[in-house]
Structure to design on (486 residues):
C-alpha cells in the first residue's frame, strides 16, 4: 500500500481544545480514525501514514496489508490531533505498528498482535492527553517475545498470574503488561497474588475474572497487596472478585494499600468483605497520598463489625491538591459496623474528590458516621477535604446514635464543597438541611428531587465532563470519560 495518497483541501479550521480525547469514548472532534471506511485524507509513504486533514480515515484492511509487508507508523500530526482505533486490527507478521498521536489515542476495538510483531504507542506529554480503552477495545499479544513500548518505556509481556507474580517479585520496579484476559478461578489464594509493586502494570484493556482471595490475617489484601513509590496500575478490569480478610491495613479488590501511587481506568465487580479493623473498599482498601482516576467499582462491600472505614470505591482516602479522586464512581451496596465511617464512595476522606458519584445503599451500625458519598470528612496530614461536582442517590441509614447525612455523614469544620448533591427522594434523607449529618445547611451541598436530577445536569456538573440519557444510569448524570456499564 506504499504510495497511497488521498487528500483534499482543509475546509474547517482546527481549534486545539485543552481537553483530552480520553474524555470521550466517541470523540466528536477531528481525529485520524482507523476504521472500515475507505482511506481518506491520509498520505502513506515509506511505511508512514499521516493525516492531511483534521478528520482523516485509514482503512483497517489497508493498514493490515501494509503490516504484512513491513513496519508501519500511523501519525496524526498536529492536523488531526488524535488517533482513534474504531475497527478490529490483527496481523501475524514480524512488523511493528507505531500509533503516534500528537495528543491522545482512543482504542475502541481490539488490536491483536497475533505473531511475533510489536507495538509502540506514543501520546503527548500534556497532562490531559492519554491513551484509553473503550467499548471492546483492548490489546492482545500471542507471542511473549513481541515488543511493547508505551511513551518511551518498554514492558515485559505476561500471560498468566503465576509468571507475573514471579516477575514482579524479582523486579518490583519493572513495567509489566497483561497480554490477554484470563480466568483466575477456581483457585482460592491465601494471600494477595502480587505482594508489592513499585513500577507500572498495564492491563491493556484486558480483564481478570473470578479472582478469589481469602487473605486471613494478612494486613493488606487485594490483587496487589500494596503499590507504592509512584507505581501505576491502569487499564484493567476485575470481574466477579471475592476478596476477604481480617487484617488492619487495607482490603480491596484491586489494591489493599496504596501509598504515593496511582490507579487509572480500572474497575472491579463482585464482593469485598472483612472482619478486621482494616479500611475496606470496593476497588482499593486504603489510599495514603495517591490518585484514583477514571475508575469504578460495582462491588458489594461489607465491613463487618470491626472495620473503621468502609467505602464503595475506597475505605480511606488521604490526598492533597494534586493527589485526588476524579472521574470515578461506585454503584454497589456498602455496609459497616458500629462506630465505622461508611460512605457510598469513600469511608473516611481527607482529600480532593471531583466529578464522582455513588448510587448504592449505605448502611452503618450504632454510632456510625454514614453518608451517601462520604462517611466522614476529616483533616489529613497535608490536606483538607474538598468536594466538587459530586453526587449520591443511594438509601442512607444507620443504627442507634449514628450520624447520618444525605451526602456526608460527619463533616469537619473547615471542609469545602461546591456543586455537590444528594437525592431527597431515593436516599431516605428528605430533610433539605441534612446534606451533612452533623452540620445543618452545609455550604455547597444541595438536596435535589429525583425529577430535578433527571431533568437537566445540576449546576456545576458541566457538559464538558457530564451527560445524561433516559436509558443510561437510570436517567441520572454520568461521566463522559467513564460511562457506566448500563
Amino acid at each position: 500500500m506504499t504510495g497511497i495518497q488521498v487528500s483534499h483541501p482543509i475546509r474547517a479550521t482546527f481549534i486545539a481544545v485543552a481537553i483530552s480525547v480520553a474524555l470521550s469514548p466517541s470523540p466528536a472532534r477531528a481525529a485520524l480514525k482507523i476504521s472500515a471506511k475507505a482511506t481518506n485524507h491520509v498520505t502513506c509513504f515509506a511505511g508512514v501514514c499521516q493525516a492531511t486533514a483534521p478528520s482523516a480515515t485509514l482503512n483497517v484492511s489497508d493498514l493490515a496489508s501494509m503490516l504484512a509487508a513491513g513496519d508501519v507508523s500511523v501519525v496524526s500530526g498536529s492536523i488531526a490531533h488524535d488517533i482513534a482505533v474504531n475497527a478490529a486490527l490483527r496481523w501475524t507478521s514480524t512488523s511493528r505498528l507505531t500509533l503516534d498521536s500528537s495528543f491522545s489515542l482512543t482504542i475502541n476495538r481490539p488490536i491483536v498482535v497475533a505473531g511475533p510483531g510489536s507495538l509502540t504507542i506514543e501520546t503527548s506529554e500534556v497532562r490531559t492527553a492519554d491513551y484509553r480503552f473503550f467499548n471492546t477495545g483492548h490489546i492482545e499479544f500471542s507471542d511473549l517475545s513481541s515488543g511493547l513500548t508505551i511513551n518511551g518505556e518498554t514492558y515485559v509481556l505476561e500471560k498468566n498470574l503465576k509468571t507475573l507474580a514471579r516477575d514482579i517479585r524479582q523486579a518490583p520496579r519493572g513495567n509489566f503488561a497483561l497480554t490477554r484476559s484470563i480466568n483466575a478461578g477456581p483457585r482460592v489464594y491465601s494471600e494477595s497474588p502480587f505482594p508489592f509493586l513499585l513500577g507500572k502494570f498495564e492491563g491493556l484493556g484486558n480483564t481478570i475474572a473470578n479472582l478469589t482471595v481469602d487473605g486471613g490475617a494478612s494486613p493488606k489484601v487485594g490483587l496487589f497487596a500494596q503499590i507504592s513509590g509512584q507505581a501505576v496500575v491502569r487499564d484493567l478490569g476485575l470481574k466477579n472478585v471475592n476478596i476477604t480478610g481480617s487484617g488492619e491495613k487495607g482490603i480491596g479488590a484491586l489494591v489493599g494499600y496504596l501509598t504515593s501511587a496511582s490507579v487509572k481506568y480500572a474497575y472491579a465487580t463482585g464482593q469485598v468483605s472483612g472482619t478486621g479493623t482494616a479500611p475496606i473498599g470496593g476497588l482499593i482498601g486504603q489510599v495514603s497520598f495517591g490518585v484514583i482516576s477514571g475508575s469504578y467499582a460495582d462491588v458489594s462491600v461489607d465491613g463487618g463489625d470491626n472495620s473503621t472505614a468502609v467505602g464503595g470505591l475506597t475505605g480511606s482516602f488521604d490526598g492533597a491538591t494534586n493527589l485526588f479522586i476524579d472521574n470515578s464512581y461506585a454503584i454497589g451496596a456498602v455496609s459497616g459496623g458500629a462506630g465505622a465511617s461508611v460512605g457510598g464512595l469513600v469511608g473516611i476522606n481527607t482529600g480532593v474528590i471531583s466529578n464522582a458519584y455513588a448510587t448504592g445503599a449505605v448502611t452503618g451500625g450504632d454510632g456510625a458516621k454514614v453518608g451517601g458519598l462520604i462517611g466522614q470528612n476529616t483533616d489529613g496530614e497535608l490536606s483538607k477535604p474538598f468536594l466538587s461536582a459530586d453526587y449520591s442517590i443511594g438509601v442512607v441509614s444507620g443504627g442507634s446514635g449514628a450520624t447520618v447525612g444525605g451526602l456526608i455523614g460527619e463533616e469537619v469544620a473547615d471542609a469545602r464543597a461546591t456543586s455537590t448533591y444528594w437525592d431527597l427522594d431515593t436516599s431516605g434523607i428528605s430533610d433539605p438541611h441534612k446534606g451533612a449529618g452533623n452540620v445543618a445547611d452545609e455550604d455547597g451541598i444541595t438536596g435535589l428531587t429525583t425529577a430535578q436530577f433527571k431533568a437537566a445536569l445540576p449546576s456545576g456538573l458541566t457538559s464538558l465532563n457530564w451527560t445524561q440519557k433516559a436509558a443510561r444510569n437510570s436517567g441520572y448524570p454520568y461521566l463522559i470519560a467513564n460511562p457506566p456499564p448500563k
